[in-house]
Amino acid sequence: MSNVLLQVVNLSKSYKDKNYWLNRRCINALEPLSFNIEAHKTLAIVGETGSGKSTLAKLLVGAELPSTGHIRLNGQTLEPGNFKQRCQHIRMIFQDSGTTLNPSLTIEQLLDEPLQLNTDLDELERYQLIRETLQKVGLLAEHMNFYPHMFSGGQKQRISLARAIILQPQVIILDEALASLDPSLRSQMINLLLDLQQQMGLAFILISHNLGIVRHFSDEMMVLYKGKVLELGKTTDILQNPQHKHTKKLIMSQRFQLLNR
Ligand SMILES: Nc1ncnc2c1ncn2[C@@H]1O[C@H](COP(=O)(O)OP(=O)(O)OP(=O)(O)O)[C@@H](O)[C@H]1O
């Protein structure tokens, strides 16, 4: 019996075309797609601009409602409008999430927010969980009293990661989360994410333009093109033996990144 954590079944999204007379035409941002992810595994989503990666991420976190399909977590269907249920189990980290931390709050207040909103823990329990979570992401308990501007870019990304894991989610979506870090910080962050994945059994969905990162980090990959799935399979198989001409083009355009890792 496989250890399937997240099941995506026939999920699709179309938008009304605002530029079209009477709005009768639709843009199919994502054609119906299905996939599974197991705990401890990483699925990378790649594709050129406009291929539907962000749309898929928005559907997974519940920021958009699907046109068709549904999502199951541990066999249970996630209700489209139930944000509390969704945001406890599926969290997202963006490219510049470090820079969007509220500058007027201390790190303790920033990490306390999701706990107050989503749990019944008392003040002492929340305090202890904040301490533990900061240590998990390689920061110190004393950092609780600091403000975001007192940290470097890489440390701010760790604070965003702490905010993402503090509710003990099962799935984390990394939307170009590693793109703005320099190569050495990026490797540290990847190692930290892999450690947390081991410890917590997390499943990651990695949205990235960088096939070097995809190769290093992911077990499986999905190639999207104009809202359609071109390929879905083991990352090593697809990178070594791409079947579709658009996948081949993507790999050729990044052979430099792939050679340098
Ligand atoms: N709110 C919206 N209304 C109308 N069309 C939209 C909306 N959001 C996305 N689209 C369209 O859906 C398609 C997929 O967009 P999406 O942002 O998911 O692509 P992407 O792969 O994430 O691109 P990028 O790499 O640039 O972020 C595009 O054609 C886009 O124009």
Automatic annotation (TrEMBL):
The keyword Cell membrane applies. Belongs to the ABC transporter superfamily. The keyword Cell inner membrane applies. Its main location: membrane. It is a peripheral membrane protein. Keywords: ATP-binding, Cell inner membrane, Cell membrane, Membrane, Nucleotide-binding, Transport. Residues 6-251 form the ABC transporter domain. It comes from the Bacteria. GO terms for biological process: transmembrane transport. This is Cationic peptide transport system ATP-binding protein. It holds the Pfam family ABC_tran. It comes from Colwellia chukchiensis. One of its GO terms (molecular function) is ATP binding. It is found in: Cell inner membrane. SMART domains: AAA (SM00382). CDD domains: ABC_NikE_OppD_transporters (cd03257).
